[in-house]
Hints:
Distance between the termini: 69 Å
Bound molecules: adenosine-5'-diphosphate
Helix content: 40-55%
Number of helices: 10
Amino acid sequence: MLHNSVKILLVEDNSAEATLLVEILTEAHTAKFALEHVKRLEEALARLAQECFDIVLLDLTLPDSQGLESLSTVISQYPSLPVVVLTNMNDDRLAVEAVRLGAQDYLVKRLVNAELLVRSVRYAIERKQVSEALRKANAELAQANGRLKQEIFERQRAQEDLQRSNAELEEFAYVASHDLQQPLSTISSWAQMLAMRYRSQLDEAADKYIDHILDGTVRMQQLIEDLLAYSRVGRATQESEPTNCEVLLKAVLGRIEHAIAQSHVTITYDSLPTVMADPVNLGQVFQNLLDNAIKYRGEDPPRIHISAVCRSREYIYPENCHPDNASASSTPPSLSQNSSPREWVFSITDNGIGIKSDYFQRIFVVFQRLHRHSEYPGTGIGLAICQKIVEGHGGRIWVKSELGKGSTFFFSIPDRPVAPSIGN
Length: 424
Ligand code: ADP
């Protein structure tokens, strides 16, 4: 919609032609026009610099500028101002070229009447407004696109940096722990030799010192082996393959048969899915979590239950239950409306000693333990290994627990299409 009074700047050196146009516009009752007339391009540019006009009616033969040059000058200085050029008879080619260069329309002076002029002015302004809005939207879009590209580039770079530093760290842990084994085994051998030859020949304190050295070397060996195991998880990740989790769990239960029998634990499980995973590593996750559920059992007869549910990956976690801020919650999480992509969430629930919510994140860090070695043996690497494996599969791991009541460890594995394989 145009506003009531349209401000026109008429650039026309011929006074008679200008008067005629003013007359014609005065005749037009369909809209109000405020017309200002100048004779030279220089004057026109000076007026445009001082005031805002809705449109310029531009004659192409001016005393100080000729032909399309006048048009180019106005358009280059005022790109959002609509311009209608005024041509003489037989100037068709010039008129077409003017429109191609950016004029909104052209009017042949001798053929102009009120209706034609008003319509041309009106359409010129509207067309220019639309094309300006479009140009602005395009510019904004291009800007947003540029920002997005920059953001993607920066994220990719940060990810590459992170991958590189992770790889370096893994390499360092691997080399360091590998190289530490040799001198440690030398210390251990000589300490054993000392124990064999001189136990009971020195005083009581000396025997105690020898025992401390032997204990220390065994612990140190265990730590180094665990550190090596941790750094190997990243190095030796197998290709994912269709993995029947029920078959895998049964194999793991077979491996820990002795611990199950000793602790009199009752283990139950629901039907488990087939997922795309590295079976060796996924088996390690099940085993570490089951080992812990047995190790950290409470006074009650121990019970462990394993189950799995499939749900949307855009899952809405209730407050306090998201893996990122993992803390206690008994509210069952709700499902998002959007159903794809999906993931399998496994849970291993025990009725053991439980964990204080303050430690829900700390326990996944390498060598972080909540108990002394004399209370519960271990090195604090099991959950860190689980986290590395699960995250390597594109999933997450977290815990929900209450001190004295038991814990549930959850981990997710993306639900990818299971490629058919021979024998599956
Ligand atoms: P480790 O068992 O060798 O200490 P983990 O990394 O497996 O190492 O576990 C880290 C800590 O998390 C344990 O020291 C223990 O305090 C706690 N934890 C793990 N699993 C359980 C569980 N099922 N119940 C109670 N505490 C647990």
